[in-house]
Design brief:
456 residues; transmembrane helix; mainly alpha; MFS_dom; MFS transporter; Growth Hormone, Chain: A
């Protein structure tokens, strides 16, 4: 007899059922993209208002990204402990409150503190959203759906560019760039309260009556044939404590050192490349003589082409597999940045290479999100993704600071991007031998055999 989580993974996909979860989860992801992209626009504007040095300006992005690093691990832990549904809503509420506070900051230090706290709230969106959406999605379409989730990222980044460029022309105030995000984010917080708890989470926690209500409703709404199913043995109850958090980290490495190290290495290097470009591109272009509006719009072009990249990635992951998409597109994206930096003085070539980067990196990132969210069993899924995301946010969080004060001034742009690109290539090679392919496999089937590494 099937278990409840097997029933959920074998249901037909319906837009009015699982698709609703995809849309609501994706909108939260959109705000994550909007806020990260906004760092690049805030750096020159905040720096000019408070007369900051290039090194000090890096704290605009660093404070926010480090907050997201903390949020990714804390909210992933909370989601695995108290449930996806409550964490799903509270992440956006925290982000909204501290974004308003950031817009009212009287000085740069206060501004950085509030950007950090807003980042803590928003940093939980990605691990929580991916865990929830993945656990509602049937196995046969899970790769496409989780990869397609990333289409919300270039949409959010592009909206940020268009709205920010328009607001700068209309008001000239960076504070309005923060405030404009808050109203739709609060509206989404309200909508998220209607989302049911993850059925796989309820099953694993032994909450039988709630699990049956959610699963039976899914069967009815998707038109699937009702059949008997049983609850598996519940996972041990987890407690919210620092000791439990440390135990969770040990569990990830005990589950598979190869999978965990490959996940961390990929997240770190992919986002070193991406955040390095996204955060500093407006400043790089302004240093080349572009005005604020023009620099913002070139950045917007880079993010907009990523929408096409995500759609191509969603198709490719189930054709050639997650690992091939990540391993090929990531290093090529880094190479396009190096070529952009070498030809920065040639206007058409620079724009062509940065557009190529926007396309290629959005082949990589959605495939990476889908891949890592599939590698762990249900009881570790949100926290496994959250820890990997935390590593990337910590590493990438220092990119704005290190990039502006050390790498760019001393190595130059081409060599800076080349060094980071080599690290990404090495991480891709490690993935090839240390982690399994997940294409077409049920979630906990993958987690049941963590030692099955290499291409499969």
């Amino acid at each position: 007899m099937k278990t409840g989580d097997q029933v959920v993974q074998e249901l037909p996909w319906k837009w009015n059922t699982q698709g609703t979860i995809f849309l609501i989860g994706g909108l939260g992801f959109m705000f994550d993209a909007w806020d990260v992209t906004l760092n690049g626009f805030l750096i020159p504007l905040v720096g000019a208002e408070w007369g900051l040095s290039p090194g000090a300006r890096g704290w605009v992005g660093t404070s926010n990204l480090i907050g997201m690093a903390v949020g990714a691990i804390v909210w992933g832990w909370i989601a695995d402990t108290i449930g996806r549904r409550r964490a799903f809503s509270l992440t956006l509420l925290m982000f909204s409150l501290f974004s308003v506070a950031g817009a009212a900051s009287p000085d740069f230090v206060t501004f950085c503190v509030f950007r950090f706290l807003a980042g803590v709230g928003l940093g939980g969106c990605i691990p929580v959203d991916y865990a929830l959406v993945g656990e509602f999605t049937p196995a046969k379409v899970r790769g496409k759906v989780l990869t397609a989730m990333d289409v919300w990222w270039p949409i959010g980044a592009t909206l940020c560019g268009v709205v920010s460029a328009g607001l700068i022309v209309a008001t000239g105030s960076w504070r309005m760039l923060l405030l404009v995000m808050v109203l739709p984010a609060l509206l989404l917080f309200w909508v998220r309260r209607s989302v049911p708890e993850s059925p796989m989470y309820l099953v694993r926690k032994g909450r039988g009556e709630e699990a049956r209500a959610v699963i039976d409703a899914l069967v009815r709404r998707t038109g699937a044939t009702a059949e008997p199913w049983v609850l598996p043995e519940p996972a041990p109850k987890a407690k919210l404590s620092p000791r439990a958090l440390g135990g969770q980290l040990r569990d990830l490495w005990r589950f598979s050192a190869g999978i965990t190290s490959a996940s961390w290495a990929l997240f770190l290097t992919v986002f070193l490349v991406y955040y390095g470009a996204l955060t500093w591109l407006p400043s790089i272009l302004i240093s080349q003589g572009y005005g604020n509006y023009a620099a913002f719009m070139v950045t917007t072009l880079m993010t907009a082409i990523g929408i096409v990249g995500v759609l191509v990635s969603a198709w490719l992951v189930d054709v050639v597999g997650r690992k091939w998409v990540i391993g090929a597109s990531g290093p090529l994206a880094a190479l396009s940045l190096v070529l952009f930096a070498y030809q920065l003085d040639i206007d058409f070539a620079a724009k062509a290479w940065i557009t190529a980067f926007g396309f290629l990196i959005e082949l990589t990132i959605p495939a990476l999100y889908a891949y890592v969210s599939e590698l762990y069993p249900t009881e570790l899924r949100a926290s496994g993704f959250g820890w990997a995301s935390t590593v990337s946010r910590i590493g990438a969080g220092f990119v704005p600071l290190i990039f502006g004060s050390l790498l760019w001034p001393h190595l130059g742009l081409p060599m800076t991007f080349a060094v980071i690109g080599v690290l990404l290539l090495l991480a891709s090679l490690w993935m090839a031998v240390a982690a399994p392919e997940t294409k077409g496999r049920e979630l906990d089937e993958i987690g049941a055999q963590p030692s099955a590494q290499g291409a499969s």
